[in-house]
Amino acid sequence: MEKTTPTRLIRNAPPTVGSRISRCYIVWGAVLPALFLNNRHVLGSENHPTIEKGHAHPYLAAKAVDGGEPFVLDMYRGKKVIMLHLAAWDSDGIAQLPAWARFARECDGGSTVIVGIIHDQNIARAALFAKWKKIAFPTYHDPLNQADARRMGRAVCVDEFGIVRVIVHDPAELSESFVGKQFKADRAVVRPPFCEVPNYKITARQAEEGRRCIEYIEHGDACMFDPEPVLIAEAIKAYEKALQDQPEDPAAAFRLGTAYFTRFQSEGRQADDLRKAMDAWSFAAGRDPKNQVFCERLLQFACTSDKRVNSCGWIAEALRETGLTSLLPAPSSIEIAAPSGNFKPNDATPPAPPELPAHPSVWVIDSGVVRAPTPKVRGLVNVIIALTPGHAGVDAGTPVQLWITPPDGVKLSQRRIEGLAPKNGTLLLSVAAQLPDGPADAMHALKCVAVVAIQGSPTRCDFEVSIPAKLPDLCKS
Q1: Are 263 and 380 in the same domain?
Q2: Same structural domain, 40 and 167
Q3: Which domain does 279 fall in, by range?
Q4: pLDDT tens-digit profile of 266-281?
Q5: Is there a single domain that holds both residue 356 and residue 451?
Q6: Whole-angstrom Cα distance, residue 81 to residue 84?
Q7: pLDDT, position 390
Q8: Is 102 part of any domain?
């Protein structure tokens, strides 16, 4: 069968949803029961989509890290597709990349397609990782974990009918088990294809009609495909509604955290975006602690004693080797911090902050609390304090000193932190805090003083950061 590119499919697709699906059937070369054409859940199924052998792979669309054509899994019906899930922090998966490159060359021009799916919050980091490792096949970005990947370095292999047949770590296992094997369509599990990128207008209508977790998640995902400020806000509402329908759903919580953090890193950020992102990610990792994607997205901001890997320590080396000079957004100090030993509280009281004129508008302040799913020390959390210049006169590149005074019973890793005032963007500082046992509704307040220069003159800003004893209810936050 002549290879049909995704670009050609989109350009020639008629305007209606039904005719788009019919176009996929023509490319696929198979005829499905007519009832599928009337299935309004084009992007999913009745239940929450998961990746299981023998089941249809959920709808998946992802942006190319190099800015090229997006990947839509359903466009490749009629071909076998191998999706290798990758992350820069997964050393085992990286070690297998040369073997996957050789395998991709063997498959080139045939009926098997191999793509990389990179799991990172930021597409710029995904692009840097792909360039640094010289990944030999097309790579795409999945910040929401739409692909339902639980472990990195695994390849999910989908047959010509969109059914997951094999999940492997080593490409040597695929010659007989997948590439050279003939499969038959199981009409009981085949999902109707949708060959275009998400359409948030369609998913909005489906969410309004269905009013269930799955439809709300699909609508949120569609809005996040091109995350403009208005659509990010709509995605947040959709994921919140998904959690109202299914309060324990970790996938909805993970996506909610990703949407909040995406907005936090944008010019359209709102108060408490960072806090709500960390709460949602903490919830997702706590509900599904064996999911590597959920946990590592959270733990890159965790205190160093709770980190498993150095999630962003690779970035400096990648920039040097690729010849790039910068990466936006730049990783914060806590993200590039390596795992360390046990938490050690610092009870030493530093010299008091200087008595200076107070300017409460110097900083726009946000904070977040990172709660590792299995903290090494009981009650240990990491408090992220975000300082965004709110005053045009803040001297960029000059030291920022932050004094932190804990309430009785709370132990801190340090009581004075330093950073550099950002020229653009936000300074993220962090302190590990061990909370005492007590009532679930207890609130602990850290008293903070930030000192920075404004047009050469030192200025202080006094504020408080609150730490709830327990993770707040996501549906009420």
Answers
A1: no
A2: yes
A3: 208-300
A4: 989 999 999 999 999 9
A5: yes
A6: 10
A7: 86
A8: yes
